[in-house]
């Protein structure tokens, strides 16, 4: 029987892939993502932390792109190419983990708010709305400043401030699912809160979560860069800290456009790629959601 | 009140009462007013008995059914099962729901589109931690007439016909070996040809497993097809009840008479006019008086009960097995 | 001349998985002022047929045959002419349409819309006509200012009928107008439809899966199975003495209250509805037919005469149809 289930799953996945393939933007985004993530993962095989060290790098300073330094060098003679490559690890890691945290908090609170219709739901929604109107960047800045700079705090700062929109989305979907008669049937069979939320609500919001996580990664990367630019960093090289460096060292007045442009382009490309993927996922999964809900 | 068919009476009272509603009231807040959806209901379902609850849309049938299952808490009154009042602690409710099961009107909506037939039927056994889940599921499917069960286990709801879906829902209920089945419009959304099959299935389950059932419907033909007893509900209250043969062939309450008269083959029609009844504004006197054809035609006045029809509250019918009607005119004319 | 004449109409949907022959060679006629009922289970092609009458089918549906409305072929009609015919000559009450009323517009405005679109009333006068129409369907004129959610299911269904009546059509096609309504409201709507047909000389095509409802309103009945008409004739006769085994099952499905034969004995039809993409050979009903013969899976069925103005597509009717009529005479 389980092999049968497997073939079914595989077929469903196949159908999903067929649909996704038709989304050109999504496909382009996916290619960029796969390349970016693979590069970030395999980076330690080729380079190490050293590429970001001021001491170890003795190349020419402010060198424009050349054969030796395809993306030029910075104020200390470090290769921008290698820095961007190494920095992608921090940027992507923070992006992914912060997005997971965001979606995690948002899902739990969203489902709880939708499932417990009484005062619990009301309180959660109050809190959500309160967080929603807080200027999240400022809050993140303050939080990160208080907690001190580390990868962990940056992730926390982003996660804690950006979950409310996910929570609202999930709550709306939860309400829609809970109105279906099969929830009533499940209650009549004796199912409790845990059973209903994990067996019925969660599987039905899962596709939504996938799309929303993808979009959240993009926004987390942007937030990380912004935080870094504003001076709150994990003390590791990331695209955001590079931008900050270019600003600190007045790259513009040296005419070192590559120092500014390359990390900027990296952020743009990856964020675009995530957004394209997320949107494509939404269009592919949403008609199904609607069909399943109707 | 005189009983015309004593034997039928004896048969029905011989049954031990299993599920009972005592003076049940359920109210909702509706746009700033109180909607008395169920407004004083006494109803009993005996062991191995099929009771049909009929009435027009909005009269409170579904609310009563949900309250009997503990899905809605009564404002006052009690639900009793096996002589004990129902307790609403979650443990007690969970145990109760192994005994009493629900089948909903819409077989498409009552199955999770992401679950296979197996998962849907196994849901109850999993919740209650029953052993031998696979066997239980196979048995339940077979009893619900889905044979051989293996053919259906891995299908999704959208791959089933309407009748098959309803059978899956019934199988899901049977998997818990319940004593009572509460079915809310079990065939209303099914095809004419499938309808008979599902009803036959319910009759067979009663004969084979001794299952009791409360079938909620607005279809009198359905009551005639499968029920032992019928209760007619109007605006939150039962206005007539008794053995099916008696109530449906010799109805005494004017509302039941009207319901029967609009069936396609009946000779003389009494199509009730007036706005549909509104549970936020239940009229005084007899709650049916604004639409009552007997009162309107002056027959009630002839019998001298018209003043009571308009002004005097009727007593709530007890949960008796015999034929009874809550109507001054019926009482006065015997 | 008959108002509506269908000649060998077939409709095939082309979908990704292949072709769905939803309607297969249906021929029917409807006189002026007459009422025709179309019965059959879900998926038998009733709605498809109804929509084909006014060419309302989606693009992926291929329609063949001839559909003559007042002698004009709907299928070859120019687009502009077709627009005029819809509403003004024939209008349709869609299945489940009472849920299709626009929730944010007052029902009066929704009824007036076709009038204004077809220039049948000036904006100033539309209100009067709307009031008239509402009264015709038994709703007070002030209801024009209500929103759909303020009406009950039966009242909404009346609004749909008022909309269909707006342009004084000669033909109304009503797809399951009373399904999902309770008995009392159903009786109200059916009474209304009957009155309209009788008093305003409107022809009616009514679709339902409940034979008793159709027998009540219509003069003639056609029973469809798997896209084909398997029996047709005067409605009383088809209902009370169905000749095709499928019609028999349909007729038995709704019992007569008080009939001892059906007491505690619900009757149904075993087996599953046919898959339109994989129809059984021969008589499509044979896998479910209780009286199937050996030849049925290979039989070329057609509508054989089963009496006066009656026909049924069953081998038993072919062999004995006339005998039974003579027996009775
Ligand atoms: N949760 C609720 N809140 C407010 N009013 C409610 C609620 N549930 C039901 N009602 C009202 O109670 C009345 C009875 O509703 P109920 O669903 O029990 O009727 P019913 O007899 O099952 O009708 P139908 O045949 O249409 O299903 C209706 O007027 C309805 O509007
Ligand atoms: N747009 C479409 N594309 C493809 N197939 C369709 C489409 N519409 C209907 N069908 C198929 O055509 C067949 C006839 O459908 P139709 O809606 O006419 O049935 P019906 O008799 O009206 O059923 P019901 O009683 O459920 O309304 C069905 O098998 C249906 O799945
Ligand atoms: S008590 Fe009076 S108003 Fe009520 S049903 Fe009987 S006759 Fe009609
Ligand atoms: S032709 Fe054969 S299979 Fe078809 S309905 Fe008649 S007896 Fe049954
Ligand atoms: Mg109901
Ligand atoms: Mg249809």
Automatic annotation (TrEMBL), chain A:
<keyword id="KW-0472">Membrane</keyword>
<keyword id="KW-1133">Transmembrane helix</keyword>
<feature type="transmembrane region" description="Helical">
    <location>
        <begin position="256"/>
        <end position="281"/>
    </location>
</feature>
<protein>
    <submittedName>
        <fullName>ABC transporter permease</fullName>
    </submittedName>
</protein>
<feature type="transmembrane region" description="Helical">
    <location>
        <begin position="92"/>
        <end position="118"/>
    </location>
</feature>
<keyword id="KW-0813">Transport</keyword>
<feature type="transmembrane region" description="Helical">
    <location>
        <begin position="130"/>
        <end position="158"/>
    </location>
</feature>
<comment type="similarity">
    <text>Belongs to the binding-protein-dependent transport system permease family.</text>
</comment>
<keyword id="KW-1003">Cell membrane</keyword>
<dbReference type="InterPro" id="IPR025966">
    <property type="entry name" value="OppC_N"/>
</dbReference>
<dbReference type="Pfam" id="PF00528">
    <property type="entry name" value="BPD_transp_1"/>
</dbReference>
<feature type="transmembrane region" description="Helical">
    <location>
        <begin position="25"/>
        <end position="47"/>
    </location>
</feature>
<dbReference type="Pfam" id="PF12911">
    <property type="entry name" value="OppC_N"/>
</dbReference>
<dbReference type="InterPro" id="IPR000515">
    <property type="entry name" value="MetI-like"/>
</dbReference>
<feature type="domain" description="ABC transmembrane type-1">
    <location>
        <begin position="88"/>
        <end position="278"/>
    </location>
</feature>
UniProtKB/TrEMBL annotation, chain B:
<keyword id="KW-0813">Transport</keyword>
<dbReference type="InterPro" id="IPR017871">
    <property type="entry name" value="ABC_transporter-like_CS"/>
</dbReference>
<dbReference type="InterPro" id="IPR050319">
    <property type="entry name" value="ABC_transp_ATP-bind"/>
</dbReference>
<protein>
    <submittedName>
        <fullName>ABC transporter ATP-binding protein</fullName>
    </submittedName>
</protein>
<dbReference type="InterPro" id="IPR003439">
    <property type="entry name" value="ABC_transporter-like_ATP-bd"/>
</dbReference>
<dbReference type="Pfam" id="PF00005">
    <property type="entry name" value="ABC_tran"/>
</dbReference>
<dbReference type="InterPro" id="IPR013563">
    <property type="entry name" value="Oligopep_ABC_C"/>
</dbReference>
<dbReference type="GO" id="GO:0005524">
    <property type="term" value="F:ATP binding"/>
</dbReference>
<keyword id="KW-0067">ATP-binding</keyword>
<keyword id="KW-0547">Nucleotide-binding</keyword>
<dbReference type="Pfam" id="PF08352">
    <property type="entry name" value="oligo_HPY"/>
</dbReference>
<dbReference type="InterPro" id="IPR003593">
    <property type="entry name" value="AAA+_ATPase"/>
</dbReference>
<feature type="domain" description="ABC transporter">
    <location>
        <begin position="19"/>
        <end position="260"/>
    </location>
</feature>
<comment type="similarity">
    <text>Belongs to the ABC transporter superfamily.</text>
</comment>
Automatic annotation (TrEMBL), chain C:
<keyword id="KW-1003">Cell membrane</keyword>
<protein>
    <submittedName>
        <fullName>ABC transporter ATP-binding protein</fullName>
    </submittedName>
</protein>
<dbReference type="InterPro" id="IPR050388">
    <property type="entry name" value="ABC_Ni/Peptide_Import"/>
</dbReference>
<dbReference type="GO" id="GO:0005524">
    <property type="term" value="F:ATP binding"/>
</dbReference>
<dbReference type="InterPro" id="IPR003593">
    <property type="entry name" value="AAA+_ATPase"/>
</dbReference>
<dbReference type="Pfam" id="PF00005">
    <property type="entry name" value="ABC_tran"/>
</dbReference>
<dbReference type="InterPro" id="IPR017871">
    <property type="entry name" value="ABC_transporter-like_CS"/>
</dbReference>
<dbReference type="Pfam" id="PF08352">
    <property type="entry name" value="oligo_HPY"/>
</dbReference>
<feature type="domain" description="ABC transporter">
    <location>
        <begin position="4"/>
        <end position="251"/>
    </location>
</feature>
<comment type="similarity">
    <text>Belongs to the ABC transporter superfamily.</text>
</comment>
<keyword id="KW-0472">Membrane</keyword>
<keyword id="KW-0067">ATP-binding</keyword>
<keyword id="KW-0813">Transport</keyword>
<dbReference type="InterPro" id="IPR003439">
    <property type="entry name" value="ABC_transporter-like_ATP-bd"/>
</dbReference>
<dbReference type="InterPro" id="IPR013563">
    <property type="entry name" value="Oligopep_ABC_C"/>
</dbReference>
